[in-house]
Amino acid sequence: MPTNETFNDKYSMSPSYKDLLIDFWNTIIWYYSNNRRSSKNFMHNSMGSFNFNRSDVLCIIFISVFFTLMRYNFQSIVSKKFTKWLQLTLANEKKCSESAWKFLFYTWAWSYCCYLVKYRYNYFDEPYSVWDNWSAGMFVPLDIKILYFIQCGFYIHSIYATLYLDSRRKDFYIMILHHVITATLIFVSYAIRYHRVGLLVLFCHDIADIWLELTKIMRYLNTKQDNRWEQASYLGFSLLVVCWFTFRLYWYPLKVLYSTGVVAVYRTLDRGLHLYLPFNILLWILFLLNTYWFFLILKVLQNVVCGRLTQSGDVREEDEEKLSTSKGKYLHKKRMS
Fold this sequence. Notes:
sphingosine N-acyltransferase activity; mainly alpha; disordered N terminus; 10 helices
């Protein structure tokens, strides 16, 4: 039977999409073809390796509640006065406040994560190094732990916010799925000490959200009387397209999916690799969601080229806007009759 050492030189240091698909498939076949572990013992050992104490859980719950209270205060006090001064429509006031809140969070979160993966630990340029000296129960540095707990608390808050605070959009259920998967990945990756690769996941995702929310803010600021933000919104949208493809559809699969699906087996199997397939399934679902949303972005691009862009610039709100327009016409017709 092949040993872990047999495969030490079988992964690529600079993988392509082809390498990802072929190497990942071959790794799965090899990993599950050996008879060293039954599924029952495998799950038992994996769950037994969880390192998440009660104080950590309580801390994350407190952070999620804190974010919810902060958002209420931000939207009802700070943002509300600003949007009133800008004389936005009632619908755009709510959406602009929502996007401003997310923009501020993602800007801070990505900036701090960028510092960690590019300058503090250099995991982005050397993604294979995330598995160096890995072991279940290993020490998590404080700077990483801070980001992890804040991000986990934010996404738990985001589940509540999507259900009860955010404007309802066409991808409502997909967004709920995204938040649940993200919160689960953060929680599990911390518990089994995959926190280094977790930093790469956050790094590859949050930058696109910065440009997404900023572009939406500029679209909401556009009115029939004042369209000075229109050109700026087109620039923001262009940067969103570039960042989304580069970070979520290029770097994410080649830096993260290849590392967790291929490199992890060759570099950590002798130390007890845990939840290999479940963890990778969640990461691949995230990639599929990114692909789905990219097609929605391309639909917006098509609307821009054809001059059919909605006021919000978000195709997920088209049904909502059509419904609002239909209601307005109906009420107007009823008053006239």
